[in-house]
Design brief:
CATH topology of the largest domain in chain B: Alpha-Beta Plaits
CATH superfamily of the largest domain in chain A: NADH-ubiquinone oxidoreductase 51kDa subunit
Largest sheet of chain A: 6 strands, mixed
Radius of gyration of chain A: 70 Å
CATH architecture of the largest domain in chain B: 2-Layer Sandwich
Helix content of chain A: 55-70%
CATH architecture of the largest domain in chain A: 3-Layer(aba) Sandwich
Low-confidence stretches of chain A: 491-499, 572-589, 652-661, 731-746
CATH topology of the largest domain in chain A: Rossmann fold
Number of strands of chain B: 4
Radius of gyration of chain B: 30 Å
Mean pLDDT of chain A: 80
Largest interface: A-B, 38 and 30 residues
Oligomer: heterodimer
Number of helices of chain A: 21
Amino acid sequence: MRLWDFHGGIHPEENKQQSVQQALVKAPLPKQVVLPLQQHIGAPAEPLVSVGDTVKTGQLIAQADDFISANIHASISGTVTAIDERPIPHASGMSDLCIVIESDGQDDWVKLEPIADWQNADSETLLNAIARAGIVGMGGAGFPTAVKARIREQHTIDTLVINAAECEPYITADDMAMRTYPERLIQGVQILSQLVKPSRCLIGIEDNKPEAIKALHSATKDTDIDVVVVPTKYPSGGEKQLIQILTGREVPSGGLPADIGVICQNVGTAIAIAKAVILGEPLISRITTLTGNAMTRRQNVDVRLGTPINELLDFAGFNAALASRLIMGGPMMGFTLTSDRLPVVKTTNCLLAPTSQEFPDPEPESPCIRCGMCEQACPAELLPQQLHWFAKAEEFEKAQLFNLFDCIECGACSYVCPSSIPLVQYYRFAKTEIHKEQEEAKKAERAKIRFEQRQARLEREEAEKIAARNARMAAAAAKSAAAKAAAPATSGASPVTQGLAQGLDEAAAKKLKIQRAAATVALKKAEKALTEAALDSNASPDNKAILEANHKAAQEKLAAIDQQLNGGAQAKTQAGANPQPAVATNPNGLDDAALKKLKIQRAAASVALKKTEKALAEATDENRVQLEATFKAAQDKVSDIEQQLGIASAQPASNEQSVAAPSADQEKILKQAKIAAAASKAAMKKAEKALVHAQSIGDTDEIAAKEAAIVTAKANAEKAADKLAALQGVTPKAPAAASHSASDATPETDLAAKQEKALKQAKIIVAATRTALKKAKKALAEAQDSKDPEAIKAQQAVVERCKTKFTGAEQTLAQLTSSDVC
Amino acid sequence: MIEFLAQHPVLAAVTGLLTLAALFGALLGYASIRFKVEGNPIVDQIDSLLPQTQCGQCGHPGCHPYAEAIANGDDINKCPPGGESTMEALAELMGRDPMPLDADPDTIGVKKVAYIREDECIGCTKCIIACPVDAIVGATKLMHTVIESDCTGCDLCVEPCPVDCIDMLPVETTVKNWGWNRPQGPNARFEHQVFASDRPFTTDGRAV
């Protein structure tokens, strides 16, 4: 069979003989095992037991937590005493999570589940068995075997290579395994062949293991497995290098053997697979070489995983005084352990305890002399010197360009370096830094994405908020617009009509107020005229009567307006929401105002009366009659006002009976009118009495005066009677008005009231003129009796004037009555 | 024309060069329009050098804004989380001189991660709002915790915490993130040695 060669390589002293002199033995069962949860490449296993649990040998205690992960089993029976951080065999000398089992000394196994008919089992069953057993690459890297065995799912494999080269000095674990269990190895290879289905199956073994070669040859006699003996050269046991030797194919840079159709498995792994499938035995032990001149019993042992190294060293007769250091792995690729209180793990193929003679302290690093020997030695065909410079200068990108990651860290370059430069350490440092940078870049990218996504989210949320707010505002605007639009049609109808009514009411009230102001002005004018007339002694009695009538009319008008205004106000308040209090309170207020007004009027009237009295006292006989009339008129006025005042002051009391008020008011007015009538009658009688008395005395002046007084008293009486009659006429209507309520002070009723007033006034005027006429006629008769031509003439003129006045008054009355009828 | 040019080689050369100039000018003008690059590509290059902690220690709201600022002439030494290496990378990219970092030298380059003392957390969510990369989980009145793998160590959550229960702890070295150290180099063993001195020496070559 043709063999190829790989570039470079070295031939260090093998030192394998020391540990193959004695047969493979089982190491004594440890009292305690420490099983790290990560003894493999990939994710750490997840513990299935807790402190205090009793476990049996082979029991699954930690389960693979990821696709690339491996199960961990109890390697002894006993009790789980701790699951915590313990120092692990790692180049860093750090601690990691471990399951600690205290042995019960029984080594009581769980019931194993072997696959009896493994030759015919399907690949899934076999892969599951391998995965269940927690098998990882035993050569050193510790890649989960089940994952590697699935390679066929993605790649076409034509060659299965079993790595039996074991090129590293001192290590003889695979050699002893092949010598001891060649059949088991062949079974394992057959299982792998079943899984991978390669066209050929090669066992590559270095020619420095003749016994193992012999054993394999005999074991593979009836199989299609080729045992290929390769020349000894370090590092022919490197995966890529062995593949190159056996197949001539080179694994591409950054690639995997599967890329060139090859899969490579270690001897130890193949044996573990066979045990797992055929015996059902999980990976709980491994073969480890105990060697180095610091040990007296240099040999290979089958040791339970998790066994403390110090127990193994004790077994091997380790002499700490002699040892320069303690190395896990070989002299080329192993690492120095910081302590012997560390467990054996799945990848512990060798424990090397050399003496200082064997392994003197490394020479101090000297500057590179650019000899280029490292390049000669490099099995990966790299430029170690360049990589060294780049690593030293921390020019990692350049190092990567020079394929730093194709370095297998075999240590051949360091071995040959005349300057004792720890080249591998430089490469490891460079690799570490590059990994860190890559991790950071990854993390930075992740952070950037997360940051951008967060920003985008915040912006989106803000936009949504604004949109929601705008929508809300738009909805509110639409709503208000709709309400505005709907106002005339629907709910707005009543407010508008109300407003309209109010507006009308207000307008009416305003109009009334204006009217009232005008009336007040008229009244004042009339009053003024009256007082002037009273003061003017030359003024004719007719004039005064006219003035009086005017004054009265103005007063009446004012009162009427006031009434209307009150009615309007009442209506307004009653149109409000709370009619009852409005009726109860408002009229009171209005009445108070009216009362005040009336009082003022009364005061003014009494002043006028006093003035008239004074004038009367000073007046001459001639004027006396006229003045007396004026005085009477003033008195009338006062009494009139007092009457009104009485009504008004009576109103508050009656108002408490609210709705009944108008009728009660009217009743009061009626009553007062009756009283007034009675009073005027009494006054008339008194005047007649006085007249009789005066006649008996014979004083003509006195008689005339008394006569006039009687006339006015009569007029008063008549007036009172008229008023009474008018009121009685109104009374029947009152209930209707009351039922309409004060609020309904409609123009009709107002008009009626006005007309009534006007009628009343007209009647009064008629009455007054009639009395004046009578008086004038009487005076004429007296004058005719006295035969005084001058007096007769004067009296005739007066009579004439009175007549015209009377007829005028009668005409007005007739008009009014006719309009009233209408 | 050709004859005229042939007789006046100087004019011919000038004409030829002018023609070429016009031709290439037109070509360049067309290319500048046809192959116009939107945005400033240097910003993205700078941004890729920045550590993306989004910490705002540079005074800009995030790494990209600082990248833009650098592109517009801002100093390159304002990124303590990036440390010396980032500054040097920026100096190289921008063709500027390296300058000392504008930060407390003790804190430069120390990777930190926020840690919430969960017993003391009152669940106020203020740190969650402050975190630029959404690396804190929790809800109102419920305990919060930091997703360590997403924390950029930017410090921004420490200030808003009303009960001061957030610590910035240096990232611990574990088996996972441990790495080989740099070898000391050929001259390391001579660092403390004195080669020529009239002072007495100790046995290992150090001056007394």
